[in-house]
Amino acid sequence: MAEIESADRIEQAGERRSARIESLRALAALAVFVGHAFALSFGSRPGVFEGTKNQLLVGGGLGVFLFFTLSGYLLFLPFLRAQLGTRDRVKLADYARNRVLRILPLYVVVVTALSVVRPFGGQISDWWRFMLFVQNYSGQSITLPDSPVWSLQVEMHFYLVLPLVALALAFVARRSLGLTAVLLLAGAAVSYRLRAHGVETRDSLGVLYGLYSLPGLMYLFASGMLMAVARVWIERDGVPSWLRLPVLGWSTAWFAAGVLLYAVMARHDQLFQARLLPFAGFLVVGAAVLPLRPGPAVKALEWRPLAVVGVASYSLYLVHVPIIQALTGTHVKVVGGALVTIGDGMSFKLTLLLAVLIVAPVTAVSYFGIEQPFLRLRRRWA
Question: Which residues, other chains included, contact 118 with Cβ-Cβ below 8 Å and sequence gap of 6+?
Fold first, then answer.
């Protein structure tokens, strides 16, 4: 099975990437963008979660969790193939260099600039928290100076522990994909319970380890790691008979089912969302990476303009909230484990229009001026 088919290809700083994967990044980032634009335009006025339309718009913020599933799949896949001997072993120096050059340059620029400007109450004295990726462990800094960076702390911690997790799985499972899957499911169950405890109790320990840190979110990375197991299993043993059935083997059915789960979650509470998030991510990522029967969903994910947005989705993700906050005069803080918007806000349609007009060029400048040079450097070093 080809790693990247000719139709599923896009360039990022000279590297060949999967257009389907980049399109998933684009959809996740755009959903988060719209969700934040709506929530921040509403300000502190009540009613933001009332009604189906409002819930679906705010629910765009669930897109951040798809990034975790994608990371679990993409980063665990090389370790798993190496474990089975189908690929060369992963060189940890290369792995570390790639992660650092992918994440840190833009992160440092954005966080430093916002810490200096202090537009939303961020303090220069908190700078060390962000540089060490420990901002989530303080209620005073978790949303500062740019609220989306909370998820980058979780990502960075996953990058650090993944080689150890992969080594432990290789040692215990001994090349057994079935046992690898069982161990991942067991770990995911423990992680889910931590998150559920944080949602149910809202005590300080539950919020700390269940809502905004890796222990309570590892089960979402595990859903992507399980997809990597499924992918390698099919590469080794061939497509199973049940994936050849008309509906079960149709990529559009997988994608539609995943999107439907996200829509359902948007209308329910956080505990209900916690239960369904790994399944939604598993289905959506599976539609893009498994050898399923192609359909409209795959064709849409291979649409080049959408994939181009995905290529620059990291810049879009980091720059959009400060711009929207500046437009609406709102900010976000954590109250009882929940993100609460403070401020009067403004019309959502006007916020969205102005945000698009400003965020789009800023994203382009960020990507071409900061991200791309370091990505090219990564390629040259490789």
Answer: 124, 145
> Which residue matches tokens 């940890």?
92
Find tokens 């303090």 and name the residue.
Answer: 123
- CB burial readout 344-380, b (16+ within 10 A) else e: ebbebeebbebbeebbeeebeebbeebbbebbeebee
* Mean pLDDT, all residues of the chain: 90
CA distances from 333 to 61, 140, 141, 246, 341 (A): 16, 8, 9, 48, 7
Where does the pLDDT of residue 224 fall: very low under 50, low under 70, confident under 90, or very high at 90 and above? Answer: very high
How far apart, in whole angstroms, are the C-alpha atoms of residue 284 and residue 257?
8
Contact between 65 and 221 (Cβ < 8 Å)? no
136 vs 142: CA distance, rounded Å: 5
Residues contacting 300, CB < 8 A, separation 6+: 23, 306
Answer yes or no: are the C-beta atoms of 149 and 164 closer than 8 Å: no
Which residue in this structure is represented by tokens 């450097």?
Answer: 377
Cβ contact 135:154 at 8 Å:
no
State both tokens at 266.
């948007």
The predicted pLDDT at position 310 comes to 97
Q: How far apart (Å, rounded) are the C-alpha atoms in residues 42 and 261?
A: 25
Q: Residue 84: its pLDDT value, please?
A: 87
Predicted TM-score (pTM) of the model is 0.93
Give the model confidence (pLDDT) of 155-188 as tens digits: 999 999 999 999 999 999 988 999 999 999 999 9
CA 147 to chain centre: 14
Beta-strand runs (E) in the chain: 10-12, 15-17, 331-335, 338-342
3-state secondary structure of 85: coil
The domain locations on the chain are: 10-381
Instruction: Render pLDDT for 1-45 as a digit per residue (tens, 0 to 9).
Output: 334 455 688 988 788 899 999 999 999 999 999 999 999 998 888
Report whether 227 contacts 285 (CB < 8 A). yes
How much is the pLDDT for 3?
A: 45
State which amino acid sits at residue 78. P
Distance, CA of 371 to CA of 365 (rounded, Å): 9
Q: How far is CA 315 from CA 33, 168, 327, 351, 364, in A?
A: 12, 34, 19, 19, 8
